[in-house]
Amino acid sequence: MIKAVIFDFDGVLVDTMPIHFITWKKLASYLGFELDPSTIDKMRGASRDKSLAIVLEQGGVDASPRQKQFYAHMKNTWYHYEIKEMTRRHLMPGALELLEQLKEKNIPVAMASSSKNAVHIIEHLSLQHYFQCMLDANDIQLTKPDPAVYLASAKNLGLPPESCLAIEDSPLGIKAAINAGCQCIGIGPEDNLAAATDVYESLEKLEIEKYLVN
Ligand code: G6P
Ligand code: MG
Hints:
The chain is α/β, with parallel strands linked by helices. It has nine helices and six strands; from the N terminus they run βαααααβαβαβαββα. Helix 8 links the parallel strand 4 (164-168) and strand 5 (183-187). The chain binds 6-O-phosphono-alpha-D-glucopyranose and magnesium ion. Residues 10-11, 20, 43-48, 51, 76, 114-117, 137 line the site of 6-O-phosphono-alpha-D-glucopyranose.
């Protein structure tokens, strides 16, 4: 039986992927090429460094470790300007309602993210009171598909991973959750997320009771 829910952040709770894309696109323009919109799906769940590698590879750009650090910093600075403008209107459809529902039912909730900005954005949107535990890439060095962030979240909640339901929007995230031993639901187009137990188009379509009672 599921006793807790562990949410991924980007693309599950907050609609950040278009903003990640716009700011990576800005970096690509600075480097002299146009970023392909399909890149957004390759970046889902990938760490900032991995996402940068995807961008540089697409542009055929060679960069030294120092340049890479500079590019990642530049992108993150632009991303931070966007965070300042973020409001609860950027929440994914059904996210707030699901958080409310879980709170009413006294189901512990955690957030497990590969982003270094996830906790900051949750606090910016004043949503932290919904979470018993929030771990992001500032806390856990090994990012998804490594299971570390899910294992640490379950441990923090005081539950075995098998009692935790992960909610993910990326193949990398689903792999991390499953490797940790969690059950996992995918949110988004089914063809990408086949490894999840069930896939829903959006959180609005998810009937959480189904998982909490069996
Ligand atoms: C999530 C997103 C990725 C992003 C990563 C790092 O996994 O899905 O697209 O690259 O977080 O985000 P950050 O906010 O630390 O740059
Ligand atoms: Mg995600």
